[in-house]
Amino acid sequence: MPRIPGQIDVAKTEAILDAAVEVIGERGLAAPMEAIAKRAGVSKQTVYNHYGSKAELMRALMTRRVEAITAPLRDPDAAGNPAQALEAYARSMLETVITNKSYSMMRVIMMGANEMPDVAQEVFEAGPRAARRQLAEFLKLETELGRLRVENFDQAAEFFSGMVMGHSQMRSMLRLPSDKTPEEYVRLAREAAERFMRAYAP
């Protein structure tokens, strides 16, 4: 069966990003692009054709991660139900702690931040800041629709994220075992959403 136009590029892009997560998680920010290309099964030139620099590659990695985590905020099944969307978003955030895979890469990024500040800046802008911005935009829309009453959207987004992640994020960054079961994480997500809704009820 012939491939749909663009399908090969999409497959290569995903292979490069998946390889980058693994290689950078193992070898740190200084990992050469050649190693990422080899792991992805593509040429070094292919990697550079997709991403002209390590900073661009890291931005793409963070963008993909944020899009996956924030997907519940755009879920049409939760339309009109901000509590459901927030609970699902909280579970999505906590999944990154439970699985711990993405935090291996985040740890090495933090360790190499002094040597590669431009890459660290890209990671922050395309990662944590972008996620908070998307949550703030969600809260703004829900306020305009009358389902929430939020005055400072960025601050409220920070409050919700901090309430959900708490010490779990730090434990994961330090490679400490989780102090919660998967069921407790589910209850935490629900409780955070319920408390947030009560705090910002219209």
UniProtKB/TrEMBL annotation:
Keyword Zinc: no
Domain HTH tetR-type: 10-69
Gene3D superfamilies assigned to the protein according to its UniProt record, in alphabetical order: Homeodomain-like, Tetracycline Repressor, domain 2
Feature: DNA-binding region: 32-51
Keyword Hydrolase (UniProt): no
Listed PANTHER family: HTH-TYPE TRANSCRIPTIONAL DUAL REGULATOR CECR, HTH-TYPE TRANSCRIPTIONAL REGULATOR RUTR
The protein's name: TetR family transcriptional regulator
Species of provenance: Caulobacter segnis
